[in-house]
Inverse folding.
C-alpha cells in the first residue's frame, strides 16, 4: 500500500457554514493511485462535502477555511482559481447521485457527453464523438447511435447512469468522485452498475472516491474506507481490516444496525445512546481544540 | 436555510408598505375630519394655486388647487375612499371567485378542471382594459360596475395560481392519509389543501388590490368610472393632464399617491406571504 | 389453517396512462396488476418486496382502497371492499390505516403534531379526553408528550416517522399498510423504527403489510413474504422457507444482488 504513489491526499481539511459551525472537522485521508476509497457515513456526516471541496463546488456559504488538498503531487491551494479549475477539469470527473437531474432534459445525450472533451479539454469534435462511441461500448450499451440521439427522459435510470459513467471515464481522469451513484437504483441494477464501475476502474487504473451510506456497497467495491460522523473521520482502515475488526464503537454500531438477511436475529440493533454520547463528546473536544488554535 | 433568511429580511419593506397603506386607509375613513377644504368647493379666484413651498401659495391649500380652484390635498384624501373601497371589494370578489374555481379545478381534476381551464384560457385572450371599458359601458357607470368589472376580469389570475398550487398539494401523502382516515372530498379540500395554498393567495390578493386601484384609475381617466363630481385619483390625473404646462402638481401628486399605493400593496403581500409560511418562519 | 384478515382473488388494477393520452378523448388504461391471488394472516407482518415498477405500492393502495380495483375481490374481515362506495367504506376506514414513505410529505406542514394525531380520532368519535389520547399515542412511539405542540419542520426524520406511526396506530386499527417507511432513513434510525414497529406489532396484535425493496429488512421483520415483479406475484410463503430455498430464479437473483456488509471478493463477478 505505502509503496503506491498517492493520487489524492487531504490534510486537516476544515470547512465552515456562514455561522462559523464546521461541516468538516479536520478531515485527513489518502487515496492511492488506482484504488477505490469509500467515504461512508449517515446523512449530515459531510461525506459529500469532501468530494465537493475537492472539485471546488462547495455549496454557497460553505468555505474551506483550513487544510490542504493535494492531487497527484500538486497542492490545489497554491494554484490560481483558473489554473485550479483547469487541473480539476483535466484530472478528475464526477459520477453524480441522480442521473436524471445531472443531465439537461432538453439536450440530446451525445452533445452533453462530448461537452467536457471539446470545451474543457479542447478536443476536436470528431475525436470527441469517436471517444464517446468507444466509451458507450465499454459500458455495454448495444445501440450507441440510439442513445447518442436520445433525450435523457427516453432512457431508463440504469441506462442514464451508464451514460454518466461512460462520460466520467471518457477523458481518462486520474480520480473520479462517485457521489452515491447507485442510491436511486434497484438492487439488481445496482449490482450491474457496481460491477461496471469496478471493471472500468481496474482497466483504466483510475482512483475513485466513492461516497455512500451503505456499508454493503462499501464492502463490495472499496479497498480502503473512511468512516465519517459529523464531519469527522472516526475510523480509517483498509476495507478487509475494517470489516474483520472494526475498532471505533461507531463503526461497530453502524455494522450492527445494518440489516443482513443472513443473520436476521442478530442484525438491526439500534445505535446505543452511549455511543452517540461519546461521539458528541469527541465532536465537542475537537471543536474546543480548534477554537483554541484559531482564537 | 439561506433562503429562509433571505425572505425574512424584507420586514423593513413590510413595515414601510404597511405604514403607507395605513395612511391611505385612515385618510379614507376619516376624510371629512382630515381634509382641509370641501373637495368639491370651486373657487375661481383660487384656481391653479401652487403647493405650499412655491411663491403664490395660500395657507389652507398645502398641495395647491386645480383648474377649478378645488383643494388638491382634500381631493386626494377623498379619492382614497373610492380607491380603498375598490381595492377591498373588487380584489376580494376576484379572489373568492378565482380561488374557489382554482381549488375545484386543481383538486377534482377531470371534467371540472377541463371546463374551468378552458374558460380561463378564453378569458385571458381578451385585452383586460378594453374588456373593462366594454363591461362598464354595458353595466353603466358607477362604483358597483367598476367593482364587478374588476372581479369578472381578474379572477383568472387567482384561478391559475391556486389551481397549480392545489395540484402540487393534492399529490402530497397527507392528502392520501386524510382519505385513509375517511374525510370527505370537500372537507379535505377545505381543511387540508386550502390552508397550504393560502400564502400565495394572500400575496396575490394584496397584489390584486394594487391592480384594482390602477384599473379604477384607468376607468376614471377615460371617464367611465363613477360620477365625475366625486374625486377619484384617476379623475384628478385626467384633469391634471389638461393643465400639465400651467400646473404640473395637479398631475404629479395623484400620480405619486397612486404609485406609492400600488407599490405598497405588492410589497405588503410579499412580506405577509413569508410571514404566513410556517416552513419559512 | 391460519386466520386470515385479507383474502384477495384475481385482483386487477388499471390506471390511465397519461403519457399516451390522445389529444381528445380518455387516456388508454394501463394494467398495473394482472390478477393477484393471496391472503394476509391476522397478527402477522407480511412483507411485499419488489423492484420499481413491480406494482407493490399499487397493490398496497388497493388494499386500503385508495385505488379501486378494475377486477377481482378484496375480502377484508368478511367484507368485500373491492368496489364499496366511499360512504359504505367509511366505517371500515378506521381499521385500514397507512404509514407513508416520506413523513415530510405525509404530515400537513400547517398543523401541529397534536392536531395531526388527533384528527383521525376526532373523526371516528373519540373526541373526548383527546389530549390524553394524543399523549398516549406519542408515548407509545417513544416521543415526549410536549411534541404535540410542534410542527413537522421542527422534527428529525426519525421523529417524523414515529409521528406517522403514532397517527396510524391511534385508532388501534385491524390493518396497517407500511409503504417503504424506512427507505428515506439512515441505518441507525431505520433500526430504531423497525424495532419499534416490531415491538408494537406484537404488543397490539397488528396485521401489517410491509412494502419494501430491501430483502434484508423484510427478512428481519416479516413472518411471510410476497415477491412481486411486473404486476405479478413471483413467489409467496413463509419468509424463512423463502430465503432458505427460493423456488424462483428471480427470487434468487434478488437475494444475490443484496450487497452484505462483509468482504466477499467474488460477489461482483457472480
Amino acid at each position: 500500500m505505502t509503496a503506491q504513489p498517492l493520487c489524492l491526499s487531504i490534510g486537516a481539511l476544515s470547512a465552515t457554514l456562514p455561522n462559523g459551525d464546521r461541516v468538516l472537522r479536520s478531515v485527513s485521508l489518502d487515496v492511492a493511485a488506482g484504488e477505490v476509497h469509500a467515504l461512508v457515513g449517515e446523512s449530515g456526516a459531510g461525506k459529500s462535502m469532501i468530494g465537493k471541496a475537492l472539485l471546488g463546488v462547495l455549496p454557497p456559504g460553505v468555505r474551506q477555511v483550513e487544510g490542504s488538498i493535494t492531487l497527484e503531487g500538486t497542492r490545489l491551494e497554491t494554484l490560481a482559481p483558473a489554473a485550479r479549475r483547469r487541473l480539476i477539469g483535466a484530472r478528475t470527473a464526477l459520477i453524480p447521485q441522480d442521473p436524471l437531474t445531472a443531465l439537461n432534459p432538453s439536450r440530446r445525450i451525445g452533445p452533453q457527453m462530448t461537452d467536457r472533451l471539446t470545451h474543457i479539454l479542447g478536443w476536436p469534435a470528431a475525436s470527441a464523438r469517436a471517444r464517446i462511441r468507444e466509451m458507450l461500448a465499454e459500458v455495454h450499451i448495444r445501440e450507441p447511435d440510439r442513445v447518442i440521439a436520445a433525450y435523457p427522459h427516453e432512457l431508463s435510470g440504469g441506462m442514464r447512469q451508464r451514460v454518466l459513467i461512460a462520460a466520467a471515464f471518457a477523458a481518462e481522469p486520474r480520480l473520479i468522485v462517485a457521489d452515491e451513484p447507485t442510491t436511486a437504483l434497484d438492487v439488481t441494477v445496482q449490482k450491474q452498475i457496481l460491477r461496471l464501475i469496478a471493471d472500468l476502474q481496474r482497466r483504466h487504473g483510475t482512483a475513485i472516491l466513492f461516497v455512500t451510506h451503505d456499508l454493503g456497497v462499501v464492502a463490495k467495491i472499496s479497498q480502503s474506507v473512511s468512516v465519517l460522523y459529523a464531519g469527522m473521520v472516526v475510523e480509517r482502515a483498509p476495507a478487509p481490516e475494517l470489516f474483520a475488526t472494526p475498532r471505533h464503537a461507531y463503526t461497530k454500531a453502524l455494522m450492527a444496525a445494518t440489516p443482513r438477511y443472513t443473520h436476521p436475529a442478530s442484525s438491526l440493533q439500534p445505535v446505543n445512546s452511549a455511543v452517540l454520547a461519546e461521539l458528541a463528546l469527541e465532536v465537542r473536544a475537537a471543536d474546543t481544540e480548534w477554537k483554541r488554535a484559531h482564537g | 436555510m439561506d433562503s429562509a433568511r433571505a425572505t425574512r429580511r424584507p420586514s423593513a419593506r413590510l413595515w414601510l408598505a404597511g405604514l403607507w397603506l395605513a395612511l391611505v386607509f385612515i385618510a379614507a375613513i376619516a376624510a371629512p375630519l382630515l381634509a382641509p377644504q370641501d373637495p368639491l368647493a370651486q373657487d375661481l379666484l383660487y384656481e391653479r394655486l401652487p403647493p405650499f413651498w412655491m411663491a403664490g401659495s395660500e395657507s389652507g391649500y398645502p398641495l395647491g388647487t386645480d383648474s377649478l380652484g378645488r383643494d388638491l390635498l382634500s381631493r386626494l384624501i377623498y379619492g382614497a375612499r373610492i380607491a380603498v373601497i375598490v381595492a377591498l371589494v373588487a380584489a376580494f370578489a376576484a379572489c373568492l371567485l378565482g380561488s374557489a374555481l382554482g381549488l375545484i379545478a386543481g383538486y377534482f381534476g377531470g371534467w371540472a378542471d377541463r371546463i374551468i381551464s378552458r374558460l380561463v384560457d378564453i378569458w385571458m385572450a381578451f385585452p383586460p382594459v378594453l374588456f373593462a371599458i366594454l363591461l362598464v359601458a354595458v353595466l353603466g357607470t358607477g362604483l358597483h360596475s367598476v367593482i364587478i368589472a374588476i372581479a369578472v376580469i381578474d379572477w383568472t389570475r387567482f384561478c391559475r395560481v391556486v389551481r397549480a398550487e392545489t395540484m402540487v398539494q393534492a399529490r402530497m401523502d397527507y392528502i392520501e392519509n386524510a382519505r385513509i382516515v375517511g374525510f370527505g372530498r370537500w372537507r379535505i379540500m377545505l381543511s387540508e389543501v386550502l390552508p397550504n395554498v393560502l400564502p400565495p393567495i394572500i400575496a396575490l390578493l394584496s397584489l390584486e388590490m394594487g391592480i384594482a386601484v390602477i384599473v379604477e384609475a384607468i376607468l376614471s381617466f377615460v371617464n367611465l368610472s363613477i360620477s365625475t363630481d366625486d374625486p377619484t385619483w384617476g379623475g384628478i390625473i385626467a384633469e391634471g393632464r389638461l393643465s400639465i404646462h400651467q400646473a404640473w402638481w395637479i398631475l404629479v401628486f395623484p400620480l405619486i399617491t397612486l404609485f406609492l399605493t400600488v407599490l405598497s400593496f405588492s410589497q405588503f403581500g410579499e412580506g405577509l406571504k413569508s410571514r404566513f409560511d410556517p416552513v419559512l418562519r | 389453517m391460519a386466520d386470515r384478515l385479507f383474502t384477495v382473488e384475481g385482483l386487477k388494477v388499471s390506471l390511465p396512462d397519461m403519457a399516451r393520452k390522445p389529444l381528445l378523448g380518455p387516456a388508454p388504461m394501463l394494467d398495473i396488476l394482472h390478477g393477484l391471488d393471496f391472503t394476509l394472516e391476522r397478527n402477522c407482518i407480511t412483507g411485499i418486496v419488489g423492484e420499481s415498477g413491480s406494482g407493490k405500492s399499487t397493490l398496497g393502495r388497493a388494499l386500503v382502497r385508495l385505488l379501486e380495483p378494475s377486477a377481482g375481490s378484496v375480502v377484508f374481515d368478511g367484507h368485500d371492499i373491492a368496489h364499496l362506495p366511499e360512504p359504505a367504506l367509511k366505517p371500515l376506514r378506521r381499521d385500514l390505516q397507512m404509514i407513508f414513505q416520506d413523513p415530510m410529505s405525509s404530515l400537513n406542514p400547517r398543523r401541529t403534531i397534536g392536531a395531526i394525531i388527533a384528527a383521525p380520532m376526532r373523526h371516528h368519535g373519540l373526541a373526548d379526553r383527546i389530549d390524553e389520547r394524543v399523549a398516549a399515542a406519542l408515548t407509545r412511539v417513544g416521543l415526549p408528550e410536549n411534541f404535540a405542540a410542534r410542527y413537522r419542520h421542527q422534527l428529525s426524520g426519525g421523529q417524523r416517522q414515529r409521528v406517522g406511526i403514532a397517527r396510524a396506530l391511534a385508532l388501534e386499527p385491524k390493518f396497517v399498510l407500511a409503504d417503504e417507511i424506512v427507505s428515506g432513513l439512515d441505518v441507525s434510525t431505520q433500526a430504531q423504527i423497525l424495532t419499534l414497529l416490531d415491538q408494537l406489532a406484537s404488543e397490539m396484535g397488528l396485521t401489517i403489510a410491509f412494502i419494501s425493496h430491501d430483502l434484508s429488512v423484510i427478512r428481519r421483520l416479516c413472518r411471510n413474504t410476497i415477491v412481486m415483479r411486473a404486476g405479478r406475484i413471483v413467489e409467496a410463503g413463509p419468509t424463512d422457507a423463502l430465503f432458505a430455498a427460493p423456488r424462483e430464479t428471480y427470487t434468487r437473483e434478488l437475494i444475490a444482488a443484496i450487497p452484505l456488509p462483509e468482504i466477499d471478493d467474488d460477489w461482483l463477478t457472480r
In short: Chain B has a mean pLDDT of 85.
